[in-house]
Every structure is written in structure tokens, then in C-alpha cells.
Design brief:
It contains four helices and no strands. With 174 residues, the chain is mainly α.
Length: 174
């Protein structure tokens, strides 16, 4: 840099010119603007696909359990139906999370919310058909199932996001 008064070469960090004594006015350095980070938005497609996959798995696995188990009045049948439902919820949340990208956990939770009503109807009707009436008589169990559904779908969403990040799966564009 040169002195604006006499044109002499200026030393770095000096406040006055060594030749003429004029005060050095340095131009402020331009600070590059930091781009504002866009907040990731919730996407509808992963939520709907995760919910649909959950419901489809619930009905498919529930049907298979119903065909394979001959005595539908046992506690083992009830437990098996609930386990297949919970697995289906987790799988749907994982699909939603893998499709969603950054907010996979929230997408998994919302996919679980989408599934809660059909899930409870399915469990209730399965157990009512089995003759035990176990689920229909206890509203507290319905609340427990809702909590488990939301927890598993959220965990599924986080798992789906982890899978996407770990294996570099493609993000949804919608």
C-alpha cells in the first residue's frame, strides 16, 4: 500500500507514513456476507408415504398373524398383533425419516400421528374379533399404545435419518 500524501511505500500495521508523517487511513476490509441458513421445512410426501407404509404393514402383518395363529383368544395372539403393529409404526417412521432429510425425526413423528387412528382401530377391532375385548375395555391401554406409537415412529424417523446419512441415501425433492 502507498501513502496517499507522498506516494511512499507504507509498512504493514503502521499508523503514519515514515516519509512525510501523514496519517494512514486504511479502508475497512469488506466482510463477506454470511448466507442466512434456510430453515428446513417439513415435507408432506415423506409423512404421507411413511404413514401409508405403516398402515399397509399393519394390515398385511396383522392378516398374516391372523391366518397363522389358530387360537385368537390367547394373550400370545394379542401380544403378536401389537408387536407387528409397533414394528410397522417403526418401519413407517424410518421411511419418513430417510425421505425427509434434515428433519427426519419430526417427519417420523408426524407419520406416526397420521397412523394413530387406523392403528388403534385395527388393534381394537382385532382384539374385539378375538373375543377377549381386552383393548376395548381399557382406555389407559389406548393411551399407552398412542405413546408407544409416537415414540416408535419418532425413533424410526431418527433411524431413517441415520440410515440416510450413513449410506448417503437420496433426499426427497418434495
Amino acid at each position: 500500500m502507498r501513502c496517499s500524501n507522498c506516494g511512499a511505500e507504507l509498512a504493514d500495521g503502521g499508523t503514519h507514513c515514515s516519509q512525510c508523517g501523514a496519517e494512514i487511513r486504511r479502508a475497512p476490509q469488506a466482510v463477506p456476507p454470511t448466507p442466512a441458513k434456510a430453515k428446513p421445512r417439513l415435507k408432506l410426501l415423506p409423512i404421507v408415504v411413511g404413514g401409508v407404509i405403516s398402515v399397509a404393514l399393519i394390515f398385511l402383518l396383522g392378516y398374516l398373524v391372523g391366518v397363522m395363529v389358530t387360537d385368537k383368544t390367547t394373550g400370545a395372539f394379542v401380544a403378536l398383533v401389537q408387536i407387528t403393529g409397533f414394528f410397522s409404526i417403526f418401519a413407517g417412521g424410518a421411511v419418513a425419516g430417510a425421505m425427509a432429510g434434515v428433519r427426519g425425526t419430526q417427519h417420523g413423528l408426524l407419520a406416526g400421528l397420521l397412523v394413530i387412528i387406523p392403528f388403534i382401530i385395527f388393534i381394537t377391532s382385532s382384539l374385539a374379533i378375538s373375543g377377549s375385548g381386552f383393548f376395548a375395555w381399557r382406555p389407559l391401554l389406548a393411551l399407552i399404545n398412542i405413546a408407544i406409537t409416537l415414540g416408535l415412529s419418532t425413533l424410526g424417523g431418527a433411524f431413517g435419518r441415520w440410515l440416510r446419512d450413513r449410506y448417503h441415501l437420496r433426499r426427497s425433492t418434495m
